Amino acid sequence: MSKSRLTAYLFLLGTVLIWGAAIPVIKFTLGGISALPFLTYRFGISALLAVALAPWGGLKLPPGRKIFWKTILYAFITSTITLGLLFLGVERTTVLDTTIINAIGPLIVVAAGALLLKEHVTHREKIGIGIAILGTFLAALEPIFKGGADGYQLTGNILIYLSLLTNAASAVLAKKLLRGGVSPLALTNISFLMGFLTVLPILALSGGYNQFIPTIQSLTFPYHLGVFYMAVLSGTFAYALWTRAQRTIEIGEAAVFSYLYPLISAPLAVFWLGERVTAPFLAGALFVGLGVYLAEAKKKRLPQTS
Fold it and tell me: Residue ranges of the EamA domain (predicted)?
């Protein structure tokens, strides 16, 4: 294994540890602050970091209008749309449902890589993707199976699905921009600066601008800590690691590391947040696990007989 590939794997393992805890941290912090001011506060911290890192090339792009506008598009999709959908979804649903639905995120990225970057997808992978998607539907429809259509939770599950689709689009764009010479640090910082500049007016139009500062001032320390975790560790630091790794390996291979997130998020959901494991969750997890196995397991080569 080359040194650059080993480094990429270590960076991705770092993001697994950070992002594996991110959904439970978001859910906990939403207990003290709603999604829109949470996002604004979180993007505000990241934007300050982006400006602080500007003298070291933190906002520097290669010359060319095409690169510039692709970067702006990537930043908008990655921050405002994907994270916006994720936060709004987590606010309405459970961490366990989010964990199961997010499990197909890597498979969606693999499919996007095949369609847009011409990366190879086998017939076995296609079957696995289909089975895994079926499993996430079982989890997403849990509010209906529980004996009463909980529209609020169902809406949250749908928002999580949408965030996966936009995240796949941002992964493809990131790969193209990294190939074009854009630095991982610049991609990360511009994304969060864009997030702050676009979410702030949304907050104002929603009528929450006047209450934003009082809301921040009234937060207790654990909720501030949750916001800082998302802004600094799960934000600037983890995104920089992830985009740096994307430069070396295929987006489908990098996405496989996302399968490790539930090893951290599911126990935190049960033992920290007190969520209950349900029958639809277990059924969905079984199908997702089978689909992931079929999609990702390598076929064993039989020994040659003479």
Answer: 7-139, 155-294
> Cβ neighbours of residue 168 under 8 Å, at least 6 residues apart?
105, 108, 109, 111, 112
Structural domain boundaries, residue 140: 3-295
22 close to 232: Cβ distance less than 8 angstroms: no
Number of domains in the chain: 1
Q: Is 161 inside any structural domain? A: yes
Q: What is the pLDDT along the chain (306 residues), one digit of tens a residue?
A: 678 788 888 888 899 899 999 999 999 999 999 999 999 999 999 999 999 988 876 788 888 889 999 999 999 999 999 999 999 999 998 898 888 888 777 777 767 666 665 666 667 767 776 777 677 766 666 666 565 555 678 888 889 989 988 988 888 888 889 888 888 888 888 999 999 999 999 988 887 778 888 999 999 999 999 999 999 999 888 888 887 787 777 766 666 777 778 888 989 999 999 998 877 777 777 877 777 677 666 544 434 433
Place of tokens 């689709």: 165
CA–CA dist 297, 291 (Å, integer): 10
Q: Is residue 163 assigned to a domain?
A: yes
CA distance 149 to 164: 23
Angle between helices 35-52 and 84-92 (to 10 degrees): 150
